[in-house]
Automatic annotation (TrEMBL):
GO biological process, one term: mRNA catabolic process
Gene3D superfamilies given in the database record: Nucleic acid-binding proteins
Keywords on record: Cytoplasm, Exonuclease, Hydrolase, Nuclease, RNA-binding
GO cellular component: cytosol
Originating organism: Hymenobacter lapidarius
Protein name per the record: Ribonuclease R
Length: 826
């Protein structure tokens, strides 16, 4: 680490080493040496010292061959185990020494072709996930495998009528369909034991839950209905298939129509009875902003406040920076430094410094709030930050990982204040070529706080304070970005919906956040810091095992998912050649350019993103496919992400000459952080959906242009182009004909006129209703036909009998939650 006598050390230069090939024998030996142990792919990679993308592909290929040979068995996700010791011994014998067996092993069934619905977690009838999927984060407290006549698995609620149980320990098996009256009141994520029935439905096995082994969270959020002195809570989550009975003494003064959190205290054995619960939190009358947002927080288990001991501990931290502490750090207080953040940001966890060197190069400092200087291991602050793992950004509020005293005060890099930082400093030329890197503890004094809009103004006008420095860095960022894409980075991005709110939280407008050069400049330097920190730690030790580090990893997409996506894109006239793994990013980037500005852009880009694996935190240096980085970490946001704090501690430990850190505790924290990140994303999406419905409630009767974003047997989803709000047009309400879903070709077809409606088609719609309580939006198509024709059709519908106007989506969620076969998911 740096010292006052030698402030420029240590310097980390990029080093390259030739990776060794991974043989099939090495992979098999890892299992034969541990015949009873379950090995995840990441554990296998660590044992074999995998460091490159090529080696990862070799392991995948060997695993595939060994599975076909029946030598190893897939248990769940990417976990494998030795299949049969005797079979392995026989396979390893010379062919002339093998004895014929009396009974041959059954041939390994080749993987079945999966439909687009199964691949992307969508079904034309049912909104569900085919398997745990790329968002899944393993846990370690799962029960032992069930006896042979039953199967243990995790409940994945599909509709109020049935669920799927995702099996554990089943090689190539399908999810098991269980009707809700046979679920024993199990909820999403619960671990259950299922007894298989004879026969199947839709080609899928069926079963009954015989035991609930683990209830993850026996709490339900919903509206309470008071009947006399008794209460019944109807869950907000449409997949919860039962109401909760609340006796009078457990209502706790709740009133009819209140939004409440109820904890289930008794699960009956009789499926005809209802679970009994107690109101543990009342949010007020349903439909109000506070009630609904607080209900979302409770639904996802988000904290409402910090424990008193955490607040007390944060308030007791001194803000005085001692001279001894300054002496231990590299001093950047006299170097031009500024922050660039959203205009409404309060926590500034990164700053940039710039200084021209004598050799004509530029020294760019990426300075990150030194959170771990204040949050020490073993403290209440540390325990709470580790548990929360991430800040959560709902539409109208932030649920911070750390108390305000730290997040907006001590750690925030506010202008004109001395601040403690952990920095990555780079020597670059004007073409963005990197010469040297330095990492260490620093102290800075920010000269200026820019909003993104102010920085963008400097870029566009070339005028204003610090304009020269901002433009130098912007030019570098463009060249660094171009090089990144040249190396295979993926360009697909999701569009971020933002709201303009009044003081009461009511949405006044909805818009899509525009990413300009100022945003991209900051992003490129943060990516550079994250990448180089990861490379630095990885290269500190050349022998195995490498130094333990927190990596942000993103696996390459599965070939089957890519091919399914290619078939989908082909329906829109786009041909993708995805056979060559080295050309996947090029093909996807070309598609991104082709669809830009077209009606199907959001549908295809959203589906492409979901085709990718889910990025997670891991101790395995498996690289980041989407960014095309061999090594990548999260270092730049420790105020709002616990993995960044972990990375800071590990980097400091190694810079001080510390020995390797045990890997298992770090890996467990990585898994927890990945799970919390997923939960936060789901909560954020729920708050966005609520605000979209609230906004559209003032647009009843107005006409908008939209595109078809999803199709089900019940109707089609339309996403409004200008504000990305999405609602449903019921298939029975499409004028002019009777329409049916053609799920194989991702379209609906008129029975008589043969009119075809498919993903990406432009539609003019009228807002019919917006239900705040159900968070659904209903549209109807603009009908320009003569009035007498419309009246005749309306009379025919009336005679046939139509479904109620207000609907509950029994095909997998709420009106806006992408039930059925959807092109994208929020």
């Amino acid at each position: 680490m740096n010292t006052p006598e030698n402030p420029k050390a240590p310097r980390a230069k990029r080093e390259k080493s030739e990776p060794t090939a991974i043989s099939q024998e090495q992979v098999l030996s890892a299992f034969t040496e541990n015949p009873t142990k379950v090995l995840a792919y990441r554990q296998l990679s660590r044992r074999l010292g995998v460091t490159t993308k090529g080696q990862r592909e070799e392991i995948f290929a060997h695993i595939k061959v060994l599975r076909k040979q029946g030598l190893i068995t897939l248990l769940q996700n990417d976990e494998y185990r030795l299949a049969d010791t005797e079979a392995v011994t026989t396979a390893l014998m010379p062919s002339n020494a093998r004895k014929p067996t009396k009974k041959a092993s059954p041939p390994v069934e080749p993987p079945r072709n999966r439909s687009v619905q199964a691949q992307f977690g969508q079904d034309p009838i049912v909104h569900r996930r085919r398997a745990a999927g790329f968002d899944y984060v393993d846990g370690d407290d799962r029960p032992e495998r069930a006896p042979s006549n039953t199967i243990i698995g995790t409940v994945d609620l599909a509709t109020p009528n049935f669920a799927f149980v995702v099996p554990e320990g089943v090689d190539g098996g399908d999810d098991i369909r269980v009707f809700t009256d046979q679920l024993k009141f199990a909820l999403q994520g619960d671990v259950v034991r299922v007894r298989l029935r004879s026969g199947s439905r839709d080609g899928r096995p069926m079963g009954d839950v015989v035991e609930v082994l683990k209830r993850v969270r026996p709490e339900v959020v919903g509206r309470i209905q008071i009947q006399g002195t008794l209460g019944f809570v109807k869950a907000d989550n449409r997949k919860v298939y039962f109401d909760v009975f609340v006796p009078p003494h457990l209502l706790h003064e709740s009133r009819n129509g209140d939004k409440v959190l109820v904890r289930i205290t008794e699960f009956p054995t009789d499926p005809n009875r209802q679970p009994t619960g107690e109101v543990v939190r009342n949010f007020g009358q349903a439909g109000g902003n506070e009630a609904e947002i607080n209900a979302i927080m409770a639904e996802f288990g988000l904290p409402f406040e910090f424990p008193e001991e955490v607040q007390t501990e944060s308030e007791g931290i001194s803000e005085v920076i001692s001279e001894d502490e300054i002496a231990r750090r590299r001093d950047f207080r006299n170097v031009t430094t500024f922050t660039i953040d959203p205009a409404d940001a309060k926590d500034f966890d990164d700053a940039l410094s710039i200084e021209k060197l004598e050799n004509g190069h530029w020294e760019i400092g990426v300075h990150i709030a030194d959170v771990t200087h204040y949050v020490r291991p073993g403290t209440e602050l540390e325990r709470e930050g580790k548990h929360r793992a991430t800040s959560v950004y709902l539409v109208d509020r932030v649920i911070p990982m750390l108390p305000e005293r730290l997040s907006n005060g001590l750690c925030s890099l506010r202008p004109h204040e001395d601040k403690l930082t952990f920095s990555a400093v780079f020597e670059l030329d004007e073409d963005g070529k990197l010469y040297e890197s330095w990492f260490g503890k620093t102290i800075i004094h920010s000269d200026r706080r820019f909003s993104y809009e102010e920085a963008q103004e400097r870029i566009e006008s070339k005028a204003g304070d610090h304009a020269e420095h901002i433009n130098v860095m912007n030019d570098m960022a463009h060249k660094i970005c171009a090089q990144r894409f040249k190396q295979g980075a993926i360009t697909f991005e999701t569009q971020e919906v933002k709201f303009r709110l009044d003081e009461a939280g009511k949405p006044l407008g909805v818009y899509v956040k525009e990413r300009k050069d100022a945003h991209k400049m900051i992003e490129e330097f943060m990516l550079l810091a994250n990448r180089k920190v990861a490379e630095f730690v990885f290269n500190l030790k050349k022998t195995k095992p490498r130094f333990t580090m927190v990596y942000r990893t993103h696996d390459a997409p599965e070939p089957e998912r890519l091919q399914t996506f290619a078939l989908f894109a082909q329906k829109f006239g786009y041909k993708l050649k995805l056979e060559n793994p080295k050309k996947i990013s090029t093909e996807l980037n070309n598609l991104s350019s082709e669809v830009m500005g077209k009606p199907e852009q959001n549908v295809l880009q959203g589906l492409a993103i979901r085709t990718m694996a889910k990025a997670i935190y891991s101790t395995e240096p498996l690289g980041h496919f989407g960014l095309a980085f061999d090594h990548y970490s999260h270092f730049t946001s420790p105020i709002r992400r616990y993995p960044d704090m972990m990375a800071h501690r590990l980097l400091e430990h190694y810079l001080l000459g510390g020995k390797n850190v045990p890997i298992d505790p770090v890996e467990e924290e990585c898994k927890h952080s990945s799970a919390r990140e997923k939960l936060a994303a789901n909560a954020e999406r729920a708050s966005i959906k609520f605000k979209q419905v609230e906004f559209m409630a003032d647009e009843i009767g107005n006409t908008f242009k939209g595109v078809v974003s999803g199709l089900t047997e019940r109707g089609m989803y339309i996403e409004i182009e200008e504000n990305k709000c999405e609602g449903m047009v019921r298939i029975s309400d499409i004028p002019g004909d009777f329409y049916e879903l053609d799920k194989d070709n991702y379209r609906i077809v008129g029975k008589n006129n043969k009119r075809i409606i498919q993903f990406g088609d432009e539609m003019m719609v009228v807002v019919k209703s917006a239900n705040l309580l159900d968070r659904t939006i209903d549209f109807e198509l603009v009908d320009d036909r003569p009035d007498d024709v419309k009246k005749r059709e309306a009379d025919e519908r009336k005679q046939r009998g139509s479904e109620p106007r207000g609907y509950r989506d029994h095909s997998g969620g709420k009106g806006g939650s992408k039930g059925g076969f959807k092109g994208k998911r929020r």
